[in-house]
Amino acid sequence: MADPISIISLVGQIADLIQRAYNYGKAVHDAQSDMRKLYTELLGLKGVLEQLYKLDLASADPHIADCVRSTEFRNALSSTSQLVGRLIENLDKKQMSSHRVNAFLWPWVKDDVKADIQDIERVKTWFIVMMMAENS
Predict the structure, then answer these.
(1) What CA–CA distance (Å, rounded) separates 16 from 5?
(2) Higher confidence at residue 78 or residue 23?
(3) Do 124 and 45 meet the contact criterion of CB atoms below 8 Å apart?
(4) Do residues 108 and 87 touch, judged by C-beta distance below 8 A?
(5) pLDDT higher for 45 or 24?
(6) Which of 94, 99, 101, 106 could pair with 31 in a Cys bridge, judged by C-beta atoms 3.0 to 4.6 Å apart?
């Protein structure tokens, strides 16, 4: 069985990241489109992880237990944790820098935010496909 604390911890980190990115993005010029995309993908990932947490806790099915114990699942969870950590770190660095310069800048350059959004979409899709496969 997957460590429910790991999953719920990721959900909490993502919720905090969503709020902080939203608040930061509101004060930043020319970030609306990127902020909206990132915000949407983070909300989607948070929802998928919450469903996964519920599925894991409610399941007595040994097939689901085997899946969440699999190396692939553990790797996907670890990858998601690293991605969320990187996003939080990026936001923290830019906020500190912004306070020193006393100017707000969107913490991601266009290519970086696109890559981060693609990474979020990739892990979100992996978890969705895994849950769909387990429910069929």
Answers:
(1) 16
(2) 78
(3) yes
(4) no
(5) 45
(6) 106
* Full 3-state SS string of the chain: CCCHHHHHHHHHHHHHHHHHHHHHHHCCCCCHHHHHHHHHHHHHHHHHHHHHHHHHHHCCCHHHHHHHCCHHHHHHHHHHHHHHHHHHHHHHHHHHHHHHHCCCCCCCCHHHHHHHHHHHHHHHHHHHHHHHHHHC
What is the rounded CA–CA span in Å between residue 102 and residue 126?
40
C-alpha 20/C-alpha 59 separation (Å) is 33
Closest listed residue to residue 13, CA positions, set 106, 75, 76, 80:
80
Distance between CA atoms of 48 and 40, rounded to whole angstroms? 12
Report the domain count for the chain: 1
Parent domain of 50: 4-135
Which percentage of the chain shows pLDDT scores above 70? 72
| Cα distance between residue 23 and residue 134, in whole Å | 37
* Closest by Cα among 62, 61, 74, 63 to 2: 74
Residue 99, pLDDT score:
54
First to last CA, the chain: 19
